[in-house]
Specification:
The complex is a heterotrimer of chains A (422), B (529) and C (371). With 422 residues, chain A is of the alpha/beta class. Chain A has 14 helices and 17 strands. In chain A, strands 2-1-3-4-5-11 form a 6-stranded parallel β-sheet, with helices on both faces. Chain A has a 5-stranded parallel β-sheet with strand order 9-8-6-7-17, with helices on both faces. The radius of gyration of chain A is 23 Å and the shape is globular. In chain A, 53% of the residues are buried. Chain B has 529 residues and is α/β, with parallel strands linked by helices. The termini of chain B are far apart. Chain C is 68% helix and 5% strand. Chain C is built from 13 helices and 4 strands. Chain C has helices at 13-37, 42-50, 60-86, 94-112, 118-147, 151-171, 210-228, 230-240, 242-247, 252-278, 289-299, 304-327, 333-355; strands at residues 3-7, 200-203, 206-209, 356-360. In chain C, the strands form 2 sheets. In chain C, strands 1-4 form a two-stranded antiparallel ribbon. In chain C, a hairpin with a 2-residue loop joins strand 2 (200-203) and strand 3. Chain C starts with a strand and ends in an 11-residue tail after the last strand. Classes of the chains: A alpha/beta (422), B alpha/beta (529), C mainly alpha (371). At the A-C interface, helix 1, helix 2, helix 4, strand 2 and helix 5 of A face helix 1, helix 3, helix 10, helix 12 and helix 13 of C.
Chain lengths: 422, 529, 371
């Protein structure tokens, strides 16, 4: 009987091996491990850090071997950034993965990473914030950098996030042009949450403003999942938006490509999120707002290596909150597919340039319209127009200034005109 | 042998450990006859039949089916040989329909359930003259319907020899009549039927011949037409065996425990004890005789406060103990030791040590929150020494002990508590002779100390030798209380089977009513009359 | 040939321990094969795992503190579960009871922390955690006693109710929801470490959390309770035979209620220790101790001392494999989970083999009837 158990177990092991997906890096010998560790320890104390001694720590919410999703995007970003900086991912990156959002578990993971000699520790999940804040105080020699949060200090603890709403505005342009082409003013949006989270709310608003800049008559119907990951409903809600609300483009703020696949199945179009989802739905996909996490990670690691001590990190980063956007290349849209209206690329390029110039941002008292010239170039026209919520409250008067970053990341809890809850 | 039997068993012997269940038994059933298998509890009837139906294998002896020696290794073998048994406890799946219960036993039942199985089974039932709805779920069936279904099942698989283990025990009078009609019809169709029972009137009514077993031994087979209840009882219980059990004469005191007009229902809600009266004096052993399942267990449980009663009084030294908690009853000095069939079910915690079992009833008496094991250990050592319990130590878990020692632990504890009434049921169940005598001595010692003892027993010889008086129960009713030294086994046997009722032997005083009662009639009568 | 399972009488202790050791070794060998396939030296990995990364670690005292943070709640929860299990009450609602205990303790910290002193707050947190968890456990016990419901299903379902309850608290931004951090726009549990936090006894750099000591004390008390008190005796009798317990005049229903309440109370205490140390709630507060505790209790055969040893070993596995996964970049923590699973699985198989043996059925032997 035990034999059978062992056999089953062996089989399950083989299967899990296959699932591990060929991370066939050479074994680290014991002496090497010990050596690099002692080096790292001395490194933590020394003021300036040699590149070969530098260690990056990361705390992930899911497995580091994931092949899609949030953790994958960050892991990809970190490894890419390290490669660009000439750091060895196998020996200089230390990971604690599958760390749940629990104060004790995060604290323990930080301790482990510190004991491994990490110079900078990235935490990618919002719920890591309190533990990281406290640990930053406990280990002043180590840099802590926390994604999506809002806590920080003046020396060794910052937070980082990106102006994804800018990329969403661009995706909105693609969607709006498509709706004009199809003569259907209904656009669907499957979102993890609605106004509860500024992150989702600003995304929906950015997208809608992009849509309306090309098709002022369009309406964006939003369906909320109430969950960050729910593949079944992601698909079902997309279908409902298509069938019940007659939507011709499906945008999304959720992890999986299910809404895009549903759009492809129904013969309509869509905008993905996080990564280029063209491969998942080639006949439907227009473009996707994407993150280039490596942009931040490269900046942060570079700063950490050169700032001359953990206490200088925040200063070196130019402030406790990193909020990069199109300008830095931190966010972007994926390459447009052939499904897009032919003028899309030119308009997006023009808007990108405008945002990059710093003259204009999405949430402001100025609206954009576009004129496509005969030579294919685009002229962007700015007109005064108030930013108004969908229940008629004026947020920014016509010609008013841009909404502050703190609002976009923190307190935005209203939908703009043109958004309807479905 | 000149005669060709449908099934014949020759020289069958079967032992379980040291217990001989069947010893050199011969039995034959002819084609187209009803053979009654008669015997007391534990006489080995069911064991014998289980060997026919392939559940057990005999240690010695042979089984012949239509003259040919066969080996029955499994119920499937029995089925193939045309032998079917309807067990006392039905082997049916409650949530299945009647048809499915039959269908699922088939080897060729196939993977899919087809709709036509209802018709097929229905037709078979009709063919045998049964009226049954094949779609009816077993859980919705009355007991008699379930039994009918069992019989149909046996017939469906082509049984020529049908064994019925106490089929009437669960039926009403009308249902019994109906069952007998069925049996007669089956007999007419050439089936051979063996019916296990200990109800003499039924034996006389239905059977052609009667085979009698006593204590595992084959007594003989007689033609029903040429016998009567008297003779059968004699065969069944045998002649009195002198066991040399001491019966000390003790001066009797006033009744310690009186039971008045007691009615108790069993777990199924049927009346288990039916308006029973009796009393126990100090220095007296009152035996309770009766066929198994005649309310003995319910009676013991009611006295111990474990089972609510329907009506009546239980008076201990003049106080009504009805409705008292088991704890209060223990505190009054009433000890109960019931040895169930599995021996360990009630009264002992098998995984705990002897010491821990010793303190089961008095662990509350020590002061403070802690258990006083010191006293328990002293008690255990005392009981081990006194009763000669064979055990590695007082810390040995009770389940590791042999049966006799387990029972000694149980009785020893009860006695240690210094009770004034002991209720003991089957205290020698499964014990060898020496252990049994040790137990009898313990009880007699208690009797001499003025304790009133209710002895629920199985072996009539023992009861006649040990008890002062014997109360006979027949299906919950008292058939009379007799003096043990004056009665005969035949009389007891007749009373047990319901053939003799001595409750009104003395017109002025029905059996079981004490003259010098402790019991104030006004409180007692108030409720009932 | 057919087989049947026969109960084994009296497996000697050395043989039992040998079987367990063999099972662990077998699991490690299987895991080692997998490590080799991933290009990792199994010995180096296991060395790292079993030393929990403390060798050559400048902050080894931290590692040990973190290890105790895993160990203490698991040990206390297992001890608590063993109380109910001894009575054959299958309380698999440890998770839910833990969560409710944690929420109750946090409530006290938030509401009374600012009013009464820290010491009193901590005591009240423990009491509140115990009461809440105890009452939650009592639901299943009362239904079982009253209506004969199945406690396994009932406690299992109550786990999910508790889990959804705390998730609801974490997700719901509202004026009444004082559990959340008021400064955060996005709902997130608030810290109360400044109001109430269990003290640590400094031993050099190492800080021994007082909860660890209390856990050991509770363990000793439970041991005494089970072994020497009347109530412990009653639990043993009820667990062995309810019929006998009735017969001995015990109020079985009351004993079940009392014991389950106590069992759940101790789980609530473990929860209060945990939140009182972390100073914050979380939806993952249990760290699965309600589940792992069942295995620990079972592997320890409900022996209180063994529970502490087994908890220590399981915690070592749990924590050590996380640490080892950090050193060896090829191995992720799913490997650690799998290794834990394999060890537990084989140890349970070994346990089965110590209690039963598998024998071929002899064709003629059907003598297993009763007299």
């Amino acid at each position: 009987m035990k034999k059978i158990f062992a056999l089953i177990l062996a089989m399950s092991m083989v299967l899990s091996l296959a699932a591990c997906g060929g991370s066939e890096a050479p074994a680290e010998s014991e002496s090497q491990a010990a050596e690099s560790q002692s080096q790292a320890e001395s490194a933590a104390e020394s003021e300036s850090t040699a590149a070969s001694d530098f260690k990056v720590g990361a705390i992930y919410i899911n497995s580091k071997n994931d092949t899609a999703g949030y953790t994958f995007a960050h892991h990809n970003g970190i490894t890419k950034a390290m490669e660009e900086l000439g750091l060895d991912v196998n020996t200089q990156l230390v990971i604690q993965d599958e760390v749940l959002e629990d104060y004790d578990q995060v604290s323990t993971a930080v301790d482990t990473l510190v004991s491994e000699g990490c110079n900078i520790i990235f935490g990618i999940s919002f719920g890591y914030m309190d533990a990281m804040a406290d640990k930053a105080e406990e280990y002043p020699d180590v840099i802590f950098s926390h994604a999506t949060g809002y806590k920080s200090n003046e020396t060794n603890f910052n937070n980082y996030f990106g102006r994804i709403y800018q990329a969403r505005y661009l995706a909105g342009i693609a969607a709006g042009l498509k709706s004009l082409e199809l003569g259907n003013n209904n656009i669907g949006y499957v979102s993890a949450y609605g106004t509860q989270y500024a992150e989702t709310c600003s995304g929906i608003n950015g997208f809608t403003l992009g849509v309306q800049s090309v098709n002022p008559d369009a309406t964006v119907y939003v369906k909320e999942l109430g969950n960050w990951a729910d593949e079944v409903n992601e698909s079902a809600f997309a279908k409902e938006l298509i069938d019940t609300y007659n939507c011709c483009v499906i945008a999304q703020h959720c992890d999986s490509a299910q809404p895009q696949i549903a759009a492809a199945d129904a013969g309509v179009f869509g905008c993905g999120y996080n990564s280029d989802m063209t491969a998942d739905a080639p006949t439907a996909h227009l473009t996707a707002p994407i993150w280039n996490w490596n942009v931040y990670y490269r900046t942060a690691i570079e700063a950490a290596m050169t700032c001359g001590g953990a206490e200088n990190f925040v200063t070196a980063m130019g402030g406790p909150a990193y909020y990069g956007g199109l300008n830095e290349g931190f966010v972007d849209v994926s390459p447009l597919t052939e499904n897009c209206d032919p003028n899309t690329q030119a308009i997006i390029d023009a808007v990108k340039a405008l945002i990059a110039s710093g003259e204009w941002d999405v949430f402001s008292g100025t609206k954009l319209t576009y004129t496509v010239n005969e030579d294919g170039t685009v002229t962007v026209n700015k007109t005064a127009g108030a930013l108004v919520t969908n229940d008629g409250t004026e947020i920014v008067p016509a010609d008013g200034p841009s909404v502050e970053d703190g609002v976009i990341t923190g307190t935005m809890n209203y939908f703009v005109e043109g958004v309807k809850a479905a | 042998m000149a005669e060709q039997y449908a099934v014949e068993m020759r020289g069958i012997t079967k032992t379980f450990g040291s217990v001989v269940a069947n010893k050199d038994v011969n039995l034959g059933v002819r084609q187209g006859e009803i053979l009654a298998l008669l015997g007391e509890n534990g006489s080995g009837k069911t064991t014998l039949m289980n060997m026919l139906s392939g559940i057990y294998k005999p240690d010695r002896g042979e089984i012949l089916v239509e003259g040919k020696a066969v080996s029955i290794d499994s119920p499937e073998d029995a089925k193939r040989l045309g032998i079917g048994m309807v067990h006392q406890h039905f082997k049916l799946v409650d949530v299945f329909s009647a048809a499915d219960n039959i269908w699922m036993g088939q080897e060729k039942a196939g993977f899919l359930l087809k709709k036509d199985r209802y018709n097929q089974i229905g037709e078979v039932a009709k063919k045998f003259g049964f009226d049954i709805d094949p779609r009816k779920k077993v859980r919705n069936m009355a007991v008699s319907e379930k039994q009918t279904l069992e019989i149909i099942k046996v017939l469906y698989y082509g049984a020529k020899v049908i064994i019925l283990d106490e089929p009437t025990a669960v039926l009403t009078v009308q249902e019994i009549a109906k069952l007998f009609e069925v049996l007669r019809r089956m007999k007419a169709e050439g089936h051979s039927i063996i019916i296990i029972t200990h109800k003499l009137n039924e034996v006389l009514e239905i059977s052609d011949r009667v085979a009698i077993l006593r204590k595992g031994e084959y007594i003989g087979t007689v033609d029903t037409a040429g016998t009567n209840e008297q003779q059968l009882t004699e065969y069944m219980v045998g002649h009195k065996v002198d066991l040399n059990i001491e019966r000390p004469m003790v001066e009797k005191t006033r009744p310690l425990l009186e039971i008045r007009d007691l009615t108790i229902r069993n777990d199924e809600g049927a009346v288990a004890i039916d308006h029973v009266n009796f009393y126990i004096r100090g220095g007296e052993i009152l035996g309770v005789a009766g066929i198994a399942g005649c309310g003995q267990k319910e009676l013991c449980e009611a006295i111990a406060g474990l089972r609510p009663i329907e009506s009546g009084q239980m008076i201990h030294k003049g106080d009504n103990i009805v409705g008292l908690s088991p704890k209060a009853i223990i505190e009054k000095g009433i000890a109960m030791s019931f040895i169930p069939e599995d021996r360990l079910g009630m009264g002992l915690a098998p995984s705990l040590s002897i010491v821990d079992n010793m303190i089961l009833k008095n662990y509350r008496d020590s002061k403070g929150p802690f258990v006083d094991r010191k006293a328990g250990r002293a008690d255990a050592d005392h009981v081990i020494k006194e009763l000669g319990i064979v055990t590695p130590s007082a810390e040995t878990p009770v389940r590791r002990l042999s049966g006799g020692n387990v029972q000694k632990v149980l009785l020893g504890r009860e006695i240690k508590a210094g009770p004034n009434v002991i209720v003991t049921a089957y205290p020698v169940r499964g014990l060898d002779i020496n252990s049994s005598y040790a137990i009898y001595n313990i009880l007699n010692q208690q009797k001499k100390d003025g304790v009133g003892i209710l002895f629920v027993g199985e072996d009539l010889d023992v009861m006649m030798a040990l008890c002062d008086k014997i109360l006979v129960l027949c299906y919950g009713r008292v058939m009379g209380v007799v003096h043990a030294h004056k009665t005969t086994k035949e009389e007891l046997g007749m009373m047990m089977t319901g053939a003799l009722d001595l409750t009104n032997k003395y017109e002025d005083k029905p059996a079981g009513i004490a003259r010098d009662t402790n019991f104030a009639p006004d409180t007692a009568a108030g409720k009932e009359e | 040939m057919r087989f049947h399972v026969v109960k084994r009488e009296n497996c000697p202790l050395w043989k039992k321990l040998g079987m367990y050791a063999l099972a662990v070794a077998a699991a490690l060998v299987l895991g080692g094969c997998l490590l080799l396939a991933m290009g990792v030296n199994p010995l180096a990995y296991y060395g790292r795992m079993f030393t929990m990364g403390m060798v050559g670690n400048k902050i080894a005292y931290k590692a040990f503190e973190n290890y105790l943070k895993v160990f203490a709640p698991l040990a206390l929860t297992s001890v608590a579960l063993s109380l109910a299990f001894r009575m054959r009450f299958w309380n698999i609602g440890g998770e839910g009871q833990f969560i409710l205990g944690a929420v109750a303790a946090a409530t006290v910290a938030f509401k009374l922390g600012p009013v009464v002193g820290e010491g009193l707050t901590l005591v009240l947190m423990c009491l509140a955690g115990m009461l809440a968890a105890g009452l939650y456990g009592l639901i299943a016990a009362a239904l079982k006693v009253k209506f004969g419901t199945n406690e396994t299903l009932m406690t299992l379902m109550l786990n999910y109710i508790a889990l959804y309850f705390i998730t609801f608290l974490e997700d719901t931004k509202a004026d009444w929801n004082f559990y959340l951090d008021p400064t955060s726009v996005r709902p997130i549990f608030g810290r109360f470490a400044n109001l109430a936090s269990f003290p640590k006894i400094p031993i050099g750099k190492f800080g021994l959390n007082i909860c660890v000591i209390l856990t050991l004390v509770v363990g000793v008390l439970v041991f005494i309770y089970l072994k020497y008190t009347k109530q412990g005796y009653e639990i043993a009798v009820v667990g062995d035979s309810t019929g006998t317990a009735h017969y001995a005049g015990m109020k079985v229903g009351k004993i079940v209620l009392r014991t389950v309440f106590l069992s759940a109370c101790l789980i609530g205490l473990a929860a209060a220790f945990k939140v009182g140390t972390a100073g914050i709630l979380s939806t993952n507060i249990t760290d699965d101790v309600g589940w792992t505790g069942i295995i620990v209790a079972w592997l320890s055969q409900l022996n209180t001392l063994a529970i502490f040893i087994v908890s220590a070993l399981i915690s070592m596995l749990h924590y050590g494999s996380d640490v080892a996964a950090a050193t060896f970049s090829q191995v992720d923590s799913s490997f650690a989970n799998m290794l834990q699973g394999a060890i537990l699985f084989l140890v349970l198989a070994a346990d089965f083999c110590t209690r039963f043996q598998v024998l071929p059925v002899k064709k003629e032997g059907k003598n297993n009837g009763n007299g």
